[in-house]
Automatic annotation (TrEMBL):
Residues 1-21 form the signal peptide. This is Peptidase S9 prolyl oligopeptidase catalytic domain-containing protein. The keyword Signal applies. It comes from Luteimonas salinisoli. PROSITE patterns: PROKAR_LIPOPROTEIN (PS51257). SUPFAM superfamilies: alpha/beta-Hydrolases. The keyword Signal applies. Keywords: Signal.
Amino acid sequence: MGVPRAISILSLLLAAGACIAGDGERRLCPAPGATAPGTATVSTTLAGVPAILRVPRTVELAPILLWHGFGPPASERELMELLPLDGVPAVKVYLGLPLFGARAPAPGELARRQTEDLASGVFEPVVMAAAKELPAIVAALRAAGCLDRDAAVGLFGFSAGGAAAFYALAERDVSASAAVVLNASTGLGASVDAWERATGGSYAWTDRARALAARSDAGSRAADIAAGEPPPALLILQGADDAMVDGVHAAAALEALQPHYGEVHAGRLRLQAIEGMAHAPAASAALEALRAAISAWFSRHLDRADT
């Protein structure tokens, strides 16, 4: 499925009755229920974070904030092209991770950081820092007319971006009604496991790294993730052929979360295997199944845009 050609964001805004606010503030999204000529994309920054907004013809649901991973898709644009999710009537906000894209350090610096200390050099300043950027991003979306004051957002994360989504759910700095993670690291421990498998190396754990692992581990933070009434609707997607992130971590996270969801909210928590999918999603029948699963989950569980 290709990404439809973008139309002018200005045309969309004018057709939808949106406005350009004063003092440098722009309304980037049409009012809920307004109909525009077609899907539009706009590259921008939200509280200093590079972002691409994909705005549908009609906005009915709260925005979805999406993070890419360290490997393909490894940028906000690559993720948008892979998962446009045009069947979901919500603004999609594809976010660049810290130390990637426009915020990337000098060539070779990220690899040096990873070799020196995966925990404090990469995981904390990229994955955990991404989650901590959310309150300012959400405030910027509200200022741009993309999010109602009381509406909760949706979260999506692939691989390391999935770890950011898990951590954001646990920290609860912003309200999320629904989340989907794909081939996600469930925390620093799972990321170290993947790194050791990929490199054949052995990570030298320190007390600080162990503390970061405890703070970021989805299983250890299950009660925090499931807090709220109702708890966030969480779909954990795992490629059946993923050789990088071991599915055992996803299963362990599910097992830790289930008691906190209980029977009443059991339908808001699911682990689903995507047959034929490796770690990095690619054009295939599996990709169509993936898009359908993500779209259905968000369409069912996202807040209304005008909550």
